[in-house]
Amino acid sequence: MSDILIGCGQITWIRFTSNGPEWLAPEEQVLTEIAQAGYDGAPASPERNRSAQEIIELYGRYGLRPAPGYIGTAFWNKERRDEILERVRRHASFSRAVGSTELYVAPGGFDYVTRSHRPRYELAGHVRPEDSLTDEEFQIFAETLNLAGAITLAEGVRSCFHNHVGTVIETREEVDRLLMLTDPDLVFLGPDTGHLAWAGADPVAFCRDYAKRIKTLHLKDIAAAVRERGRDAGWDYGTFEQQGIFVELGEGCVSFPAIFAILRAVDFSGWLIVETDVTQKPTARESVTVSRAYLRSLGM
User: Fold this and answer.
1) Mean pLDDT score, 202-214
2) 3-state secondary structure labels for all residues of the chain
3) Which strands make up the sheet holding 102-107, listed edge to edge?
4) pLDDT band at 49 (very low <50, low <70, confident <90, very high)
5) Segment 12-32, tens digit of pLDDT
6) Structural contact between residues 88 and 81, judged by C-beta atoms closer than 8 angstroms
7) pTM of the model
8) Using CA atoms, how far apart are residues 245 and 224, in angstroms rounded to an integer?
9) How many Å separate Cα 102 from the centre of its chain?
């Protein structure tokens, strides 16, 4: 896997509050620390209203490249389809302009109220079949993803579906069902290893089953003991975070050597993006440095 780029998600420097995301450090400091830890780049998107050229120049000052961006939204809501696809067009055009050939497309739905009258964020890590989208919503989700995939491919960018705990597509069963309804020539995969494990799936088995459809990944690790405690206690998403569900790569239960062996077998090339959403280390810089050192120990 010689054509591998290792990116670092900026989320470790962000605190999510009721008023929205709050940066814990200036962007210049974040990019400096990502570069010093030895990463090749960081995700970029048009959401902060800067041009592609401005992003290329900003990242370039730190020796970094723009990595695949992310769009999470209500793909299952047909009434919002036009709005969603317009947002996808903007992301696709931006991705092409910054030189990124992948875009993570993910479900929203933390506040999606299930048939049990509870929002999905309260059911994180212990979702039941009856908490899933309806048959119609699954179909709409898949149709919208196919349309999004066609839009991004027209720009030379692959839409890569991304699973996420606390949203409407969390479990292995939900992911499988959605993927069966999508066109593999239009919708690819950008799985999150930690969210798969948190949801109770086996990330290694998932990557093996879908290896040829995977075009990028979020590398994330979790603490299995925290997952089990939270599942038994019925914690919500925020409580899992507070109790330390996220850990640095190599310090949790995800078998990255096995995943990388699978990727090598299919000649994977592209971006692997490290993320620790909430670190228990003293600083974000220490967190991303630990994860980068672990990947180096595996020859990455």
Assistant:
1) 98
2) CCCEEEEECHHHHEEEECCEEEECCCHHHHHHHHHHCCCCEEECCHHHCCCHHHHHHHHHCCCCEEECEEEEECCCCHHHHHHHHHHHHHHHHHHHHHCCCEEEEEECCCCCECCCCCEHHHHCCCCCHHHCCCHHHHHHHHHHHHHHHHHHHCCCCEEEECCCCCCCCCCHHHHHHHHHHCCCCCEEECCEHHHHHHCCCCHHHHHHHCHHHECCEEECEECHHHHHHHHHHCCCHHHHHHCCCEECCCCCCCCHHHHHHHHHHCCCCEEEEECCCCCCCCCHHHHHHHHHHHHHHCCC
3) 69-73, 102-107, 158-161, 187-189
4) confident
5) 999 887 777 889 999 999 999
6) no
7) 0.96
8) 8
9) 12
Contact present, 149 and 165 (Cβ < 8 Å): no
Location of structure tokens 């591998």: 4
pLDDT at 1: 57
Which residue ranges form the domains of the chain, and what is each CATH number? 4-297 (3.20.20.150)
One-letter amino acid at 81 equals R
Q: Say which amino acid occupies 274.
A: V
Q: Which two tokens mark 171?
A: 């479990």
CA distance 5 to 101: 13
Check: CB of residue 222 under 8 Å from CB of residue 245: yes
Are 274 and 39 in contact by the 8 Å Cβ rule? The answer is yes
